[in-house]
Write a structure and sequence with these properties.
alpha/beta, eight-stranded parallel β-sheet, 16 helices, 35% helix, globular
Length: 475
């Protein structure tokens, strides 16, 4: 018989309608699924999980993270988007071994899981060979969480190398079922970074393999070459398409997304940090698109969903209030705390094609839960649970994490993870990457980890990137 667990004594946020925005409810699990949610549940044969002083809610969903870059954490904290391209992509990416990309994905996924991100889409654009693809996928598989492997081999500025053989191989082998805890999607290079002909071929391939597509569109000046409009003209947008960022695409392109049923992923922290343009949250909402949220890269910003929700909320409130004027009676809070919590949960699940399985706490869905400490001095007393999550929340509140009915973190401790050993391997990987970079014949002598290195960007201006990728068929 499947194992039963009864979660009692906690405040519960279900996000399934207005009920359960902080009620004391019991949740009965049988195996991976939720089988009952009510004020009182009798289940004498179930293991009791005491959630006293906890807020129990759906786990967060990060819909876009370049996890392979974990060992370069913080390196881009003072960089522009072009400097990131030069530093992370041009300087380091080709130096990654399969072992390096495996460790980056494994440690990055563990980091996200520890802070309450039960599902993460790894936008894996560090892949330069089938061996790298297999290692990146294995890093996610070996982490105790739910992940989507967003395969994006030969990502460049631009690169039109065909990916058909390798993606088909992955779909037919590692992801032959594609319904487990780690599933496959295509991280589309797209018309920001490659020819529209290559983009069309890649989308047709993804559809043939029944894969969702996630694509960057609207990344600062790089995103002003009508990436969404050009895909729309060729019939390449539908409900299985997620557009990441959307900062600098046109309002008509956002309307195209809405008409085609596309989802969106907003990365507010990195977008403000690196000058993408203001997050498109409000523009998307105005056209009926409720976005998901994502971290993007920990080379530049933090990796937790709490600060991501908070940034999305405060940035949009600032824009809304500026538009309304300075009169206090004209200011309003059109975007609510509940909205951004939904962006971080059910809308993320929807973008990943997993909304029938996760994203809310409902009978029949799989139990991806997080337990947040409400007696922590930084949030006590909790009067408005959704406000606490969106405004005051932080990773230190995450006491326990459950994926598909199994604890992967409990009482503040990760389960089944030898973190000291993995961190030692990670440090060694980083040191080897730095040594390889400095040994290159064209190495930048200023390269350092202490914040003093600012890579040159002449090859990554908007004109250079968008000019190169509009040449049909050019590799």
């Amino acid at each position: 018989m499947p194992r039963k667990m009864l979660i009692k004594n906690g405040l519960v946020v279900t996000l399934d309608g207005p009920r359960g925005d902080g009620e004391k409810l019991a949740i009965l699990l049988e195996g991976p699924r939720i089988v009952a949610i009510d004020r009182e549940i009798e289940a004498g044969d179930a293991e009791i999980v005491d959630a006293s002083n906890m807020l129990v809610m759906p786990g967060f969903v990060d819909t876009h993270r370049h996890t392979w870059q974990t060992m370069l954490r913080g390196l881009a904290s003072d960089w522009s988007l072009a400097q990131y391209a030069k530093g992370a992509h041009a300087t380091f990416k080709h130096l990654y071994t399969p072992s390096d990309i495996y460790l980056g994905n494994l440690l990055g996924r563990i980091e996200a899981l520890s802070s309450g991100i039960t599902t993460m889409l790894d936008w894996s654009h560090g892949i330069s060979s089938p061996e790298h693809a297999d290692a990146a996928a294995q890093g996610l598989i070996d982490a105790p969480g739910r992940s989507v492997f967003g395969y994006s081999a030969h990502f460049g500025f631009p690169n039109n190398t065909p990916i058909d053989e390798d993606l088909r191989r992955l779909r037919e082998t590692v992801f032959s079922r594609n319904d487990g805890l780690v599933t496959l999607a295509l991280g589309l290079r797209g018309p920001q970074y490659t020819s529209i002909e290559r983009t069309e071929a890649d989308v047709r391939l993804a559809r043939d393999l029944d894969l969702n597509v996630t694509v960057h569109g609207g990344s600062a000046g790089w995103g002003k070459n009508r990436p969404v409009g050009r895909m729309f003209e060729r019939g390449l947008l539908d409900r299985r398409t997620t557009v990441v960022h959307c900062n600098t695409i046109g309002d008509d392109e956002i309307a195209m997304m809405g008409d085609c049923g596309c989802t969106a992923s907003v990365s507010p922290f990195v977008e403000i940090q690196m000058g993408f343009g203001w997050p498109a949250t409000g523009r998307l909402l105005a056209r009926g698109i409720r976005p998901s949220l994502s971290i993007d890269t920990c080379t530049a910003v933090c990796g937790d969903m709490f600060r991501t929700m908070n940034t999305a909320l405060i940035a949009q409130r600032g824009l809304d209030n500026e538009e309304k004027g300075s009169a206090p009676d004209q200011q309003g809070l059109d975007l609510r705390c509940r909205d951004v919590v939904e962006f971080a949960t059910i809308e993320g699940a929807r973008a990943c094609g997993l909304d029938r399985r996760i994203g809310t706490l409902e009978v029949g869905k799989e139990a991806d839960l997080i337990f947040l400490k409400m007696d922590d001095p930084t949030v006590f007393p909790v009067n408005y649970p959704l406000g606490m999550v969106a405004i005051s929340g932080h990773p230190g509140l995450v006491d326990s994490v459950m994926v598909a009915g199994q604890f992967v973190k409990r009482g503040g401790n990760l389960i089944g993870v030898d973190l000291p050993r993995l961190q030692a391997l990670g440090v060694d990987s980083r040191e080897r990457l730095i040594a390889r970079a400095k040994a290159q014949h064209d190495a930048d002598l200023a390269l350092a980890l202490d914040g003093s290195w600012h890579p040159p960007t002449a090859d990554y201006t908007a004109a250079a990137v968008t000019g190169r990728n509009t040449v049909s068929g050019r590799d």
